[in-house]
Amino acid sequence: MRRIALSLVSLTALTVAGCVAPAETVSVTETPQPAPTLHRTGATPVQAEDAYFQSAAAAVQNRIATRGVKPAKNVILFVGDGMSIPTITAARIYAGQKRGLDGESYSLTMETLPYMALSKTYSNDYQVADSASTATAMTSGVKVNSGTLGVLKEATRSNCASSIGNGTDSIFDLAEREGLATGIVSTARITHATPGATYSETPNRDWESDADLRGGDAGDCKDIARQLIEWPEGDGFEVAMGGGRSAFLTEAEADPENEGKMGSRKDGRDLTAEWVAKGPDHVYITDEAGFAATDFTSDVKVLGLFERSHMQFEMDRAKDTAGEPSLVDLTKAAITRLSQNPDGFVLLVEGGRIDHAHHGVNAARALDETDEFDQAIKTAMDMTNNDDTLIIVTADHSHTMTISGYPQRGNPILGKVNTGLDDDHMMAQDGKPYTTLSYASGMTACRMVEGEPDCTREDLTDVDTTAPNFQQPSLVFMGSETHGGDDVAIFATGPGSELVSGVMEQNEIFHVMGRASGLVAGPEPEAE
């Protein structure tokens, strides 16, 4: 039973501060194989008495009773952070137009998966949830309070004491105990909410470094980066790759890529050195050269931290000083490494920067990140066997971007509305053009003119709205665009995907993965 992680001593609370890369793996999906025989015990997680857990378990059990479930040797969970349904639609058009094709009739890879459902993303305490509570729902099968990771609803945000004894078992904990390989890759910091939910237990998602543990309520809780390095389950991650170096380096250590920037840790612990010290098979890499020199076909265990904070947007990756792999590259490497385990694996792949672009009302990068995320899904499907690998694609929450107006077919999705009719049909009532994509909230609702806020709508007549840095118009003035509360899509393929249908509670995703993989025991039958 995993308990809430505690430090041995109270931490001072302060203000935040020679191998080749894997070759293309040949698809093995062409020849159907018999379903694998899995010898997995099916654990009862520590959170099994939680009401949310029991309700979701019963819902999935009902589907199993009527449809059965095929065993899955491997599980891959793809999470497009903030990938709302309008984002998918707009990204479909964007990706098609980007390739010189008809955008409206184009299909993303995720849209070709045979099973689909809607996911209800509310948390225990908010109609519109954050990424921590939603990630915990998917990886641990319970709805929890927004801002908390891997702890039950009894834990309140930022209160360490309330989290004691209220930890959960994630699907990754259970996989490690069963001897499977595990991995996480993300374009965000690997201590950020979505990847953090796979291994950490904390009442505050922002406690990524010990420098973030501030205030009397932090108690003896461990920061998230430290929890990754000290994760007690099995032999730990085979791969953990993304951004977030700062939380692993001390304030006396210079960042290897950003001159003048130091690590954030106050406790003097270089967590990257601690990772390497675990054994000769543990390596730490920070750039594209180190990534290319890593033999992912071996038994290497990789901590890859390619940026001080989040990784570059795909649009900007080529300009990175030290060079960094793409999400497709990370996915390919992770599957190559995890596939070395004959007992199977569980992998999380997060397109984390879709969310960040949306928060900045920058639709161009949000759609481009979604396209890259979709290419990572295609890579995984090409590298795995549909007969033994369950792939689930979903989002943690929505955003407020919408598609509006009456643009004609073929109109650039990032452009201004062109109806193909006279000017009167292309202008708003104020006589100004408007974009197909806009946001309900964001920082573009007002702008500063001669030191004063001007909230009248900007005239976009001479503005190139397809430019990468263009920020779409927004309605409600906010410093950062907000999440949306509408349902998000779930797409699935492989054994267990038949359990994905209708409108589902988000925490049912855990139970689909757990039951299909044999890692989670079914609910006890009711006494007659």
The Rg value, from CA coordinates, equals: 23 Å
What number of domains?
1
How many helices in DSSP terms?
A: 13
Termini separation (Å)?
30 Å
Give me the secondary-structure category: alpha/beta
The CATH architecture is 3-Layer(aba) Sandwich
CATH fold name = Alkaline Phosphatase, subunit A
**Tally of strands:** 17
Helix content: 10-25%
Question: Would you kindly provide a brief summary of this structure?
Answer:
Mg(2+) binds at residues 81, 192, 194, 350. The protein is of the alpha/beta class and 528 residues long. Helix content is 23%, strand content 15%.
Question: Can you give a write-up of this model?
Answer:
The chain is an alpha/beta fold. It has one domain: Alkaline Phosphatase, subunit A, CATH 3.40.720. 23% of the residues lie in helices and 15% in strands. It contains 13 helices and 17 strands. The chain has helices spanning 51-67, 85-98, 131-140, 160-163, 171-177, 193-196, 224-229, 271-276, 288-292, 327-338, 353-359, 363-383, 508-517, and strands at residues 74-80, 115-120, 181-189, 239-243, 282-285, 301-305, 345-351, 389-394, 398-399, 401-403, 437-442, 447-449, 452-454, 474-477, 483-484, 488-493, 503-505. The longest helix has 21 residues, at 363-383. The radius of gyration is 23 Å and the shape is globular. The model is unreliable at 1-31 (pLDDT under 50).
Secondary structure layout:
Elements: H1 51-67, E1 74-80, H2 85-98, E2 115-120, H3 131-140, H4 160-163, H5 171-177, E3 181-189, H6 193-196, H7 224-229, E4 239-243, H8 271-276, E5 282-285, H9 288-292, E6 301-305, H10 327-338, E7 345-351, H11 353-359, H12 363-383, E8 389-394, E9 398-399, E10 401-403, E11 437-442, E12 447-449, E13 452-454, E14 474-477, E15 483-484, E16 488-493, E17 503-505, H13 508-517
Helix pairs in contact: 1-13, 2-12, 3-13, 10-12, 11-12
Cofactor: Mg(2+); Zn(2+)
Active site: 131 (phosphoserine intermediate)
Signal peptide: 1-23
